[in-house]
Amino acid sequence: MSGSHDNSIKKGFADEVRTYIPLLNDGVDTLQNLPDSPGVIEEIYRLAHIIRGAAALVGIPGLSHTASQMESTLEEVMAGNIALNQDLFDAMRMTIACVDSYNKGEVTCRKEEVDILSEIVSVFRRIRGLPESDDEKILQPLLHSLYDGETDGEADDTIEKPAFFASSQSELEQLFPPPSDPFISESDFELPILEEGAVSNMDPFMGDEDPFVFPEMPQEGSADQLAESPPGISCTSPEIVAIFHEEAEAHFETINKNLEDLEKRITGRMPFTDDEKEMIRQVSRAVHTIKGASGLVGMKDLSAWAHKVEDLLDWLGDKAVEITPEVVHALLKSTDILETFVSDPAHVSQDDMDLLKNEFLRISETTSGSESQIISDGEQAYDDPLNDDQEDQDATGIFDNLPLEDEGDETSMDQPDPILSKTRETVRMDMDKLDDLVNLASEQIISLSAFDQKLNVFQSSISELELFRSRLREISRNLEVGYEVKAIQQPGKEVQPGTGEGDAFSEFDAIELDRYSEFNLMIRALAESVFDVGEITNRLQTFYSNFDGYVTRQRVVLSELQGKLMNTRMAPMSVITTRLRRAIREVADTLGKKIRLTIRGEDIELDRVIWEKLADPLLHILRNAADHGIETPETRKKKGKAQTGLVTVTASREGNQILIRIRDDGAGLNFNDIRAKAVVLYGKDRVAAMDKDELSQLIFMPGFSTRKNVTQISGRGVGMDVVKTNIEELKGSVRISTPESGKGIVLTVQIPLTLAIINAIICKVEDRQFAVPINEVSNILRVSPENMVHDPAESIMVGNEVLPLYRLSHILGIRDPAPGQTDDAKNPIVLKVHSLEKTAALAVDSLIGQREIVIKSLGSHLQYVKGISGATVLGDGSIVPILNISELLGEGTMIQPSIGMSVNTVEKESLEILIVDDSVSVRQVVARLMEGQGWKTTSARNGVEALEKLTDMTPDLIILDVEMPIMNGYEFLGARRSNPKYRDIPVVILTSRSTAKYREKAKKLGADGYIVKPFNGDAFITMVQNLTTR
Amino acid sequence: MNENQKGQRKIKRESPLLPLEQLINEQESQMATPGGQTPSNITKIAQKISQKKGEQYIRFTLDEVHFAVPLKASLEVGMLPGITPLPNLPTWVSGISNIRGEIVSIVDLKAFWGRGPSTGNSGKNMVLLKNKEMKVGFKVDRLTGIILLSNEQLQASSPPFNEGKISPYLTKVVAREEGLLHLLDVEKLLTSKKLNAFRESKKTIEIKEGAI
Fold first, then answer.
1. What is the pTM of this model?
2. What ipTM goes with this model?
3. What end-to-end distance do the CA atoms of chain A give, in Å?
4. Is B136 in Cβ contact with A871 (below 8 Å)?
5. How many CB atoms lie within 10 A of CB A388?
6. A600 near B CB under 8 A
7. Residues B32, A931: C-beta atoms closer than 8 Å
8. Staple partner for A226: which of A212, A295, A576, B164, CB 3.0–4.6 Å?
């Protein structure tokens, strides 16, 4: 028996067969539709053969015989003895169905097996044309072999073998109801343990809803037994333990959530409703799973404790009629112990456990006397497993004493599990992977905006094309109207000036085709081409609108994608609320206070990393509130407050910030104490001038505590300043306010929604853009000369404040620190910035605006650059460095320009050239020539456009065509001369007119060079270089 | 469209060249146009090339001196993209660039070797080199194609001279018709103390501040 029960082999076989079934079905279908398909019969035959062989091997004779019937029939078909017909197809389908039901574990008793086999045998024999009378003869040995397969005197109807085909473990359990578990009745304890060993080797935690079903099979003692079984311990590799921790964490979440809900509902002794029972059951399921899993990974103490808790939970779920806050409290405390077992096994307090054990007993006795016996029996059996020495005896004791009710619960409890598992199907993944995805999405947005920009260029090219088309059409029409008719007339009559057209209409035969000259035909062809160009233009226009639509849609999708990706990093506040509740519980217990913690806005989401970092400061604030704030019940009674103190944590979202308010109704701040302490620290005079608000902010100062005695919970004075620093590290802030003396305090914590995207002010110095995080800027102002102080150091007056003035251009070494007397230097735009140490004014050249920027690193090479905290990429792909204000304004502010941004000079050598020409191709050719030299080019279509361009750029050189619409080259030269701003920009005339007359005129108007098309590239470059280096 | 035609024409004209160099040239000519500013992805080219015995190198010049880096150590070659300079850095770090959405620092190889910064028309091209830790773009003067150095050639080459600022970063010097070809040791270059000065500095500063 034991050999044939090797579960993993059978499971493997079941999996294998499962993949064959669709193949078989398909094969039969194909055969029926196309009987001549080559190889199909062979394939079915092969599969049947495999199933037969493998089934016999793993010890399922019934299945093996079934498949064998099909196999031998198909053999005859292939030999040509039997023709394909409907009967055969039906028979095959039936066989496949049988195989399937075997595989799914639906064939559970011997009678079914016999029926199936007889049916199959007779059907196939009819097909093969064998006499009915011999059926029995054939069937007998087969059926006999079926019985032979079963040994160990399993005379009852339950054949457990097919059960091992159960495709999933839960099905297995259904087939294997623990009460009638044959293993138990045979007192064969070894087997299940072996199986568990095998399962845990197979990676026990990767299962779906309840991977720990196996340990349940041999009743509740499994965990303890497992602890003894060598495989259970030996296979606890660190990975498995790690997985267990993750798994346990998820279950603790469920437990805590339900218990906290219960805590809210149950305020006194009250009847147990179904809802509450369901909660208890959920808790029980989770505890149960933890128990099983902990047993597998060898944490037997945890397993034993979990078992005890589970006993109480089961009892509550089934028998209890009433529930009291004490019960919930005990359960919460037991959960705390469970969690300690997982996180820090060394610190589990035996005393606490003993206390709770008594509490459990008391609860079950007081709440319902009649049932207590069962529980205490269980209790006794489980009291000792905690003690390693006595475990052996207990292992057997467990099975004797366990209440049978548990069994029933097992099955009934497992049913809702699939639903539960669906709701929490999650994927754990590396944060880095997620970050990669977020980055890719941002990249995509950036590249899309690059595409967008090109699209705009495309659009303007189309409108240009449109312009040329209408010009062409004009010419074509003029030709047609002015010359075509004349051309027709020529062969016949002489054209009479003035009346030529009238005459043409009088001559009817003038438009006859044979009188058309070559010229007429060309005009026609031109007109047609104009029309075609128009068509193409329209088509391009349509393409453009299509593209534009796609791009818009893509942008919407992309930003949604990015948002959703960012969202995946978000977690609700509930990830830390359990810790908060526990902290309050602990403090309240230690100090003998009654505190009720209410948490609102648990669904408010923040980056998980931020929550983790926020947990410590929040815990600290809560401990403080419980210790300093909430009074003892007696004091509260005296003050006329409810005995139970209230602490409320409210999270809410406001704009792009999360606000967390922590409020207590305790004594509030003791201003007398604070004042006394402040006097010690800062002197009497300063303190006297402080109002309550200022005084209350003092508690955030390092080392400030009014406590006379230091306790375990608080009083050292290192707390609140750490809270403040931690929160500020998250770019957040914390404030304290006191509504009314003696009515507690409110602490407000502000946290920005994400750390990856910040709001920043983009400013410009020379032509460089820089970003300054907006939370470091408190004000933007233009300083008038009278508010500037030059001695001893440059500073400005803002209101009554004198702020040191730093010029960004000097700090960054972009310009010489020599006081430039430009307008901007006298009248600078200033950002009032505040870093950790100081507030200062930072002068910039101009402001671009406020943007939401994504912070990126400076690349893998430059991991740290002083004064720069990162960079961001704008939509056009350009990089903007983000300034680190505190570093920039720190010591050694003045940076030697030599190591500053001297690259500037190199960059400046890239020439900027404005190309003014109405011909697209000339512009392109010239632009390519110039860009080949590494110069930047800008184009304009005519003089007017060129003048427009000149208003926002100052090129090093202008290349100018003469013939242009709207404003020609000569006119442009005139306009340039009259404006001092452009007068010194050298201009090169590029034209096809080579005569001296034009050359002279250009020179007179102030052109510096004259190039005739077609030009020599090298000569052109040399000329440009000469003109620009003057 | 226009660019493609141009590229094709160029290939026809330069048919005596090795197919490799054609590819590079084609890439370069496309890059020179405003539409194709992004550097070419040479790994793709590398895949197209059948592997012969020996190793492929990318050749470039600095002040008319020929250098080469192993193809497999380089990610991209091409026109130098726009550079955003940063403060508080030595002159040999030109700044940072956006290369396919990734921020990469650009090092002026000439300045790095103390030859004075690339000015004017020189240093308009870039070779992007990588090792396990980082990617750095290096400014070079001209890219002169891919070359296959056979194992014999590599063995016959002499070790680099012992002195000078450049020699520590070279593996070998190969004599060729057009002159000496200096093979760069990419790993040595990228792990050199000088280049890595901006990876550790934060820590040292923190320690300093802590000490105060």
1. 0.43
2. 0.72
3. 103
4. no
5. 11
6. no
7. yes
8. A295
